[in-house]
Amino acid sequence: MAELTALESLIEMGFPRGRAEKALALTGNQGIEAAMDWLMEHEDDPDVDEPLPTPLGHVLGREPTSSEPGGPEGTSSNAGEGKPVLSEEERQEQTKRMLELVAQKQREREEREEREALERERQRRKQGQELSAARQRLQEDEMRRAAEERRREKAEELAARQRVREKIERDKAERAKKYGGSVGSRPSPPTEPGPVPSSPSQEPPTKREYDQCRIQVRLPDGTSLTQTFRAREQLAAVRLYVELHRGEEPGGDQDPVQLLSGFPRRAFSEADMERPLQELGLVPSAVLIVAKKCPS
Description:
This is UBX domain-containing protein 1. Among the domains are: 1-41, Ubiquitin-associated (UBA) domain (Helicase, Ruva Protein, domain 3); 210-246 and 254-290, Phosphatidylinositol 3-kinase Catalytic Subunit, Chain A, domain 1 (Ubiquitin-like (UB roll)).
């Protein structure tokens, strides 16, 4: 019975012949265990089944043939040396040990992959926690900067108000000093009183400018119309508004109307129709009366 070589042992354990030969060659024929380690580590390689160039001699776990140098016929020194032959029971025992070794290597590999997967998951969770913490710090920094900006704006607003109050107080003090000092230092003679500077409270109020005018027009039937016009519009715009909104009267066409002011009573002429409401003294509000204009 022939000796069970390393190559045969690997084939007996279920490894393809090409892979077994490649594993033995790349591990330098250091034994079945080294070859099995290589097969376990490279079983998922895409080029694991690609063959390697086969050198001559004792490679790949086989004995040299009689035609190769160093074969039984080429070397006379070891031609008569005998080698132990394994019995069927020994061969099965060796195969069993090899299978157990393969199973052990497989378990070790699965445990190693499981540890690596756990380590990767731990690293992933750690990176996620660090990313979450960094995002939270960024949000806190933004909120802190926004709060600081609001405090700064509020402080600037308070400072501006304080400056305005101080300026008002200074102006009041200067006016009091100016007007009070001039009156006390130069009293007017009894016969010819001199001009006394007017205080701010004695200054005439500034006339307010209005840009709109509210006109109420009383119609002959007792109803009234109210409309807002621009202060610079002509009185003709009011008359046109009245003619468009006074309603139909029974008996034919509408007669042209004449506008009167209530107090002081005044009848507006055709020339007044070209004048703006502001110039006629109807701003900011006025009451006009509509009277029928007698035909000529």
